[in-house]
Specification:
The protein is built from 6 helices and no strands. It has helices at residues 4-30, 35-55, 58-77, 82-104, 112-116, 121-127. Helix 1 (4-30) packs antiparallel against helix 2 (35-55). It is globular and about 70 Å long. The longest helix has 27 residues, at 4-30. By secondary structure, the chain is an all-alpha fold.
């Protein structure tokens, strides 16, 4: 199949997805717990990833996949932390540059540095409601009060 005939359609749809992603991120900066916006943003990244992979645009597909993974973490956490919003906006900016490269007919710029910097998922899990970490000796004061009882078989 000649993929060049689909390039213009890809470019048009990719730009539409990127505009929607930017708007949804701005919405989520104001309302971080808006699950409809988080799910919509996830779908936009997912669609862009699939389109780019189908067309063979590896850097675009990898970056969109990374953003999709971060958004999946946000879906499970139920909110979008500010640091993740910043990461997503930077990712969308880079995706816009990659689409510009594709439109110009030049090789896609390398997204490896952005991908290596982290996917934003750590910020999601760090802000989720995990119990605080206790020091190893937190319960030693009560150890003298314990009575050991043999297990019955």
């Amino acid at each position: 199949m000649d993929m060049l005939q689909y390039r213009a359609l890809f470019l048009s749809e990719a730009r539409d997805h990127l505009v929607k992603m930017s708007k949804l991120i701005l919405t989520l900066e104001q309302e971080p717990g808006d699950s409809d916006a988080i799910n919509g943003l996830f779908r936009e990244a997912h669609s862009l990833k699939g389109m780019a992979a189908t067309m063979g645009f590896e850097q675009t597909a990898q970056l969109a996949h990374s953003l999709e993974d971060s958004l999946d973490q946000c879906r499970h956490a139920g909110h979008l932390p500010e640091t993740v919003a910043d990461h997503l906006l930077a990712g969308v900016d880079l995706l816009e540059g990659l689409v510009d490269d594709i439109e110009a007919g030049v090789p896609e710029r390398d997204a490896a540095a952005f991908l290596a910097a982290g996917d934003g998922a750590a910020a999601v899990t760090a802000t989720s409601e995990d119990p605080p970490e206790l020091p190893a000796d937190a319960f030693l004061d009560d150890a003298d009060d314990l009575e050991l009882v043999p297990l019955e078989e």
